């Protein structure tokens, strides 16, 4: 049982780390489809790809899940059940944190548990959808402060790249 829980936790922690710093923050700086699609009211990469005839948008949707999938081969050897549990919890958390009904409120007891465990609630995730410079860390809220720093570094890099005079060969 310990290996199942540990494996699920590792999948969530590692997936959220790579997803936040390798996909999500860079997607806000250099990407196109994350902000256009995921931060729109519809939030469906499939719907966007079909409606706008831009199948390339599906790649961005896949890249959002890839940080969790990339650890399956390594973690499977620890516990296949733990991997499946971690993937299920990750997907359920995606569904839960996107509860954006104006009157939705996470019950106080669950808010307290999430605060203690550093887990992102729908209210916190909604802050990110309202202001893309805040509240990073899809599952774990404690990734937020280092993600803001990473965002500032990538924005500085983007500005520097724009100022650089590129010579064509």
TrEMBL record:
Q: Does the keyword Ligase apply?
A: no
Q: Does the keyword Membrane apply?
A: yes
A Pfam family cross-referenced in the UniProt record is FA_hydroxylase
Q: Which domain of life is it from?
A: Bacteria
Fatty acid hydroxylase domain location: 10-142
List the keywords (alphabetical): Membrane, Transmembrane, Transmembrane helix
Q: Which residues cross the membrane?
A: 68-90
Task: Please give a single GO biological process term from the UniProt record.
Answer: lipid biosynthetic process
Give one GO term, molecular function aspect: iron ion binding
Entry-linked InterPro entries: Fatty_acid_hydroxylase (IPR006694)
Protein name as it appears in the record: Fatty acid hydroxylase domain-containing protein
Q: Which organism is it from?
A: Halomicronema hongdechloris C2206
């Amino acid at each position: 049982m310990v290996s199942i829980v540990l494996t699920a936790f590792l999948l969530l922690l590692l997936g959220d780390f790579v997803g936040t710093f390798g996909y999500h923050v860079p997607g806000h700086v250099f990407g196109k489809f994350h902000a256009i699609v995921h931060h729109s009211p519809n939030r469906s990469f499939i719907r966007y790809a079909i409606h706008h005839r831009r199948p390339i948008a599906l790649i961005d949707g896949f890249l959002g899940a890839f940080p969790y999938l990339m650890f399956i081969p390594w973690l499977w050897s620890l516990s296949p059940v733990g991997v499946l549990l971690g993937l299920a919890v990750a997907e359920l958390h995606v569904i839960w944190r996107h509860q954006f009904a104006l009157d939705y409120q996470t019950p106080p007891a669950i808010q307290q548990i999430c605060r203690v465990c550093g887990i992102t609630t729908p209210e916190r995730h909604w802050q990110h959808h309202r202001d893309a410079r805040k509240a990073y860390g899809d599952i774990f809220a404690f990734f937020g402060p280092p993600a803001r720093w990473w965002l500032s570094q990538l924005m500085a890099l983007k500005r520097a790249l724009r100022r650089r005079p590129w010579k064509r060969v």
